[in-house]
Amino acid sequence: MSAGAELAQLPNAGNAVLDDAKIARYLLNDAHPQNQGKAKFFTMFGFRLANWHELRKALLDHPHNNPVVRQTTFQYGEMYEVGCSIASPDGRNPCIRSFWAIEPPSTDPKFITAYAAPAQGGRRL
Questions:
Q1: Cβ–Cβ contacts within 10 Å for residue 85, how many?
Q2: Residue range 71-95: average pLDDT?
Q3: pTM of the full structure
Q4: Is there a domain that residue 8 lies in?
């Protein structure tokens, strides 16, 4: 699949893997040196360290509710970019990009990162 083409869904989304530390120590940790405003963004929509499990569930649901908008090959396998709406505690459901890697021999997608979609102040790759 070429960049820019669209898949219906992340392959094997039901088997997606997300390390809890990525949420508590990175996405919701404004003090993390590579956070780049992600914590501020997610907290604006009701996600908090005290309810980190809600962000975990929303991220795991994200590829079920949104299409793959870009797929690229990288040195370890395939990278998938999923967008847009994520269910948030405050009900505003912002547009984000979540990134998932499938690294053979595994066929299970592994969560890499997520951030605000470019239209909402996020960065472009």
A1: 14
A2: 95
A3: 0.87
A4: no
